[in-house]
Specification:
This protein is 22% helix and 23% strand. The longest helix has 19 residues, at 190-208. It has a single domain, classed as Ribonuclease Z/Hydroxyacylglutathione hydrolase-like (Metallo-beta-lactamase, Chain A, 4-Layer Sandwich), CATH 3.60.15.10. By secondary structure, the chain is of the alpha/beta class. The strands form 2 sheets. A 7-stranded mixed beta sheet has the order 6-5-4-3-2-1-14. A 7-stranded mixed beta sheet has the order 7-8-9-10-11-12-13. This is Beta-lactamase-like protein. It holds the Pfam family Lactamase_B_2. Residues 25-209 form the Metallo-beta-lactamase domain.
Length: 295
């Protein structure tokens, strides 16, 4: 298995000279497994650049796994050009929204309403298959086993673990904030809530344990997080702590804060590495256009 980032920014695309090195598209990761299947993790604006590389290839079978349906993770989906060819098959995976009780088809149909996009859904020529994923229920895509785990974010958000037949593995969090107890220690609800959080953390750690590549939302510094607690995003320090706990072999920090320039990212990264001290895994800033091998 190998993978490539096509989008590494959080919240909103940030094209321009300040983001040339690491990239300014929102979240999208291409994965090619041992059986040469095309898997795509999230459909932020980066999926448009991925689609350009697929022109001239047909038929295309793409498996797009959506972590959650916030804009920066689905906004590029209507621009995924293989949707326009009758030769292609697109499989779209995601959760059932607990509030609206709609499946992952909402990620496409909502964006193709006439008020927002010039092409309507019936004009898509590809065969589109919608798949509802459920926590802990493993599905198989070619040589890869995909296991979803619900992660803390202000909407239903699945992290995906991919285990390939070649022995490699990765876990992608989508957006993720380590859960914390909102109650004071002397509050009557503190103990039960803490018990729930600790059980959930054990589940998350088990899902990530021993993974070759851990790709995790690392939006904020600790100082920034103090003002953005509860927004559903993680910190660099939390990512490193988690990689230690689950014994990941490589850690990829992504969902870069959209206001950061490449230089600012690298300055913060050096500070994070110095503060982390010795670690027994490799740490990378996610960068668009670079091929990575998990192992």
């Amino acid at each position: 298995m190998k993978f490539k980032f096509w989008g590494v920014r959080g919240s909103i695309p940030t094209p321009g000279p300040r983001t040339v090195k690491y990239g300014g598209n929102t979240t999208c990761i291409e994965v090619n497994n041992a059986s040469n299947d095309l898997l795509v993790l999230d459909a932020g604006t980066g999926i448009f650049a991925l689609a350009q590389t697929l022109l001239g290839r047909a038929p295309i079978v793409a498996h797009i796994l959506i972590t959650h349906t916030h804009w920066d993770h689905i906004q590029g989906l209507p621009f995924f050009l293989p949707l326009l060819s009758a030769q292609n098959q697109i499989h779209l995976y995601g959760g059932m929204d607990p509030v609206t009780q709609t499946g992952i088809e909402r990620a496409l149909t909502a964006q193709l309403q006439y008020s927002y996009f010039p092409i309507i859904e019936t004009q898509l020529k590809a065969k589109v298959h919608y798949h509802t994923v459920r926590p802990g229920e493993t599905l198989q895509i070619g040589s890869t086993l995909v296991t979803p785990t619900v992660l803390n974010h202000p909407v239903l958000n699945f992290g995906y673990r991919l285990d390939d037949s070649d022995g490699s593995s990765l876990f992608f969090t989508g957006d993720y904030e380590t859960p914390s107890n909102p109650y004071a220690a002397d509050d009557a609800d503190y103990a039960s809530n803490q018990q729930f959080i600790e059980a959930k953390l054990r589940e998350v750690h088990a899902a990530m344990h021993g993974v070759d590549a851990l790709i995790i939302d690392s939006s904020y510094t600790d100082a920034e997080y103090a003002k953005k607690t509860g927004w559903g995003h993680g910190t660099y320090s939390a990512a490193i702590r988690l990689a230690r706990q689950v014994q990941a072999r490589k850690l990829f920090l992504t969902h870069h804060e959209p206001t950061r320039s490449d230089q600012e990212l690298e300055t913060i990264f050096q500070e994070v590495l110095a503060k982390a001290g010795a670690v027994d895994f490799e740490i990378y800033l996610a960068r668009e256009g670079v091929d990575y091998i998990p192992t």
